[in-house]
Amino acid sequence: MGLLPFLGAGHTHQSGAYREQVQGGLSFLLRSMNAKKGQPGDLRERGGTSGTMYSQGLATIALCEAYGMTQDKALESPAQTALNYLAEAQFADGGWPNEATKRGDTSVLSWVLMALKTGGMADLNVSEASFQGASRFLDSVQSNGGATYGDQGPERRGRVATATTAIGLLSRMHLGWKRDNEALQRGVQALATKRGPATDDLYYNYYATQVLWHYGGSLWEKWNQQMRQHLITSQNQSGHPKGSWSPVGVYPVDKQGGRHYCTSLTTLILEVYYRVAPIYHDRATDGLAP
Known about the structure:
This protein is mainly alpha-helical. It has a domain at 127-290. The protein is built from 12 helices and 4 strands. The chain has helices at 3-8, 19-35, 52-70, 73-89, 106-121, 128-141, 158-174, 182-195, 202-215, 217-233, 252-270, 272-275; strands spanning 97-98, 103-104, 142-143, 148-149. The strands form 2 sheets. A two-stranded antiparallel sheet has the order 1-2. It has a two-stranded antiparallel sheet with strand order 3-4. A hairpin with a 4-residue loop joins strand 3 and strand 4 (148-149). The relative contact order is 0.09. The model is unreliable at 284-290 (pLDDT under 50).
């Protein structure tokens, strides 16, 4: 995850003020892949608490993004092999496994889907069947006609369902839902008006910000103002942690990932203006950062 904000800001292992750091991160990923015998493309974290398929998705995004930005041939085969691993790991129901439950999971799917989309944008080979399967899985965890989503089924409620709803809606956008889709409109309206940006749920903010960014219009403009203000004012301003964001969430992953996780994810939120191209081109200039 730590590589993604560097890449999002335009830094690669070939250019930019942080090319040495990016090179170090990419080298680590390549060493990790080569160290695993008998499983080509395996980048899963061993013994991690956050679920190893999350690691696979994140690492594949980084490799594909770095290759797409530089066309470095040394990254082409590893990136493609990582994508192939994801395609082969997909369950029959279209999801990808959460290592804790051994079941398909909406949150895991989102990172894998972003890896597949990034690979496609880099002109690597990605199977259309993977996207079709992802759509089937989302059908199985949706409720309210596709306006809300659970994690491993449609029955989840409360705060977790709010985060997985943002994840599900973003995934639907990536899979081809149009801006005028009625379920999408209801889901976006609920995210923007019933809850809005959260002060204690970074994971939700990460996904919901992308949903509102792609959707655009007045809902995005209001969300953007509130979210940006919250993130800027909550950044550490002094001492050793200056420039970082501290874990404040109610979910264990915030504390498990610590300052590194929270700072990386928050930076990705703030990079949305230039890191993420709007899916709906008719709103490409709405509410840009000043």
